[in-house]
């Protein structure tokens, strides 16, 4: 998984300082509204959205555009601009809006930096839990400043596997997931983006999902990969701006290969 034109140490430090700063700003906007009355509307795809989602993304976009006017942007609520730029930021202001509006703490803010179309820096921030993963591809992943690492699980039969909900799969995809997950040691549902943090920290071994958008996985991929894991689409291809919505994240190459083979069976 070669990353073209990786960030230099100075670039990593500069971009991480900026990204953690805006993540702090996002948390300051979202957390005070959690478990408080909030108006919910439905978007065209019938997914819920709140003023918190839109307010956080507006703030993040404004901060990025001010600091890096030549960089591209991709966000859940307000779309994309300049995605052919060398550097592109991907933001999901509230990943897990259904969790947010139901008082469930497993929602997060996702911020990614891509270089030449590939994610190189990812932040997975969980405001209600006060947990934050930062992943630099080729360097490492930290949880609240301390290094973390995926598990050593290599066998599907030994793996604990997560997905957010069966509702994200088509019937054919569900059949593939059901077959694969029943071959695992355990399967669990729920978690939204939090499952990937648990994977990066070695507590679970795999996540399989579908019907995702780029802003759902671009920040997560560096977190998982820099912790030693593997994250691709269902065909085993590296994730980028143009990937489809089906992802597999696994602790080891051996487990990843077993999952890919099972999904194709």
TrEMBL record:
Please name the SUPFAM superfamilies in this protein's record.
Carbohydrate phosphatase
Taxonomically, the superkingdom here is: Bacteria
Question: Which key words tag this protein in UniProt?
Answer: Amino-acid biosynthesis, Histidine biosynthesis, Hydrolase, Magnesium, Metal-binding
Chemical reaction(s) catalysed: L-histidinol phosphate + H2O = L-histidinol + phosphate
Any Pfam family hit = Inositol_P
EC category name? hydrolase
Matching entries from Gene3D superfamilies are given as: 3.40.190.80, Fructose-1,6-Bisphosphatase, subunit A, domain 1 (3.30.540.10)
What InterPro entries would the database entry show? His_9_proposed (IPR011809), Inositol_monoP_metal-BS (IPR020583), Inositol_monoP_superfamily (IPR051090), Inositol_monophosphatase-like (IPR000760)
The residues the record assigns to binding Mg(2+) are 76, 92, 94-95, 216
Q: Enumerate the CDD domains for this protein.
A: Bacterial_IMPase_like_1
- Pathway it acts in? Amino-acid biosynthesis; L-histidine biosynthesis; L-histidine from 5-phospho-alpha-D-ribose 1-diphosphate: step 8/9
> What cofactor does this one take?
Mg(2+)
**Any GO MF annotation of the entry:** metal ion binding
**Position of the signal peptide:** none
What biological processes does GO assign it? L-histidine biosynthetic process
Q: What is its EC number?
A: 3.1.3.15
Instruction: Report the sequence similarity comment from the record.
Output: Belongs to the inositol monophosphatase superfamily.
The protein here is known as: Histidinol-phosphatase
């Amino acid at each position: 998984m070669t990353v073209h034109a990786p960030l230099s140490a100075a670039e990593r430090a500069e971009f991480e300082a900026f990204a953690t700063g805006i993540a702090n700003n996002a948390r300051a906007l979202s957390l005070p509204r959690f478990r408080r009355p909030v108006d919910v509307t439905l978007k065209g795809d019938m997914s819920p959205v709140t003023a918190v989602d839109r307010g956080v993304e507006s703030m993040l976009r404004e901060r990025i555009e001010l600091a890096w006017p030549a960089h591209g942007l991709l966000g859940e609520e307000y779309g994309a601009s300049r995605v052919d730029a060398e550097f592109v930021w991907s933001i999901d202001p509230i990943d897990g809006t259904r969790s947010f509006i139901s008082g469930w703490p497993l929602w997060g803010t996702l911020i990614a930096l891509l270089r030449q179309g590939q994610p190189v820096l990812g932040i997975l921030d969980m405001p209600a839990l006060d947990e934050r993963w930062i992943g630099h591809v080729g360097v490492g992943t930290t949880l609240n400043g301390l290094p973390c690492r995926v598990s050593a699980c290599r066998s599907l039969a030994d793996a604990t596997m997560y997905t957010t909900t069966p509702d994200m799969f088509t019937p054919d995809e569900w059949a593939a997931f059901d077959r694969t997950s029943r071959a695992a040691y355990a399967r669990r549902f729920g978690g939204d983006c939090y499952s990937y943090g648990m994977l990066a920290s070695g507590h679970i071994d795999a996540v399989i999902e579908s019907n995702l958008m780029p802003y759902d996985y671009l920040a997560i991929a560096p977190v998982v990969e820099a912790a030693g894991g593997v994250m691709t689409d269902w065909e085993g291809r590296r994730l980028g701006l143009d990937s489809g919505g089906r992802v597999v994240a696994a602790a080891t190459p051996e487990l990843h290969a077993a999952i890919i083979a099972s999904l194709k069976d």
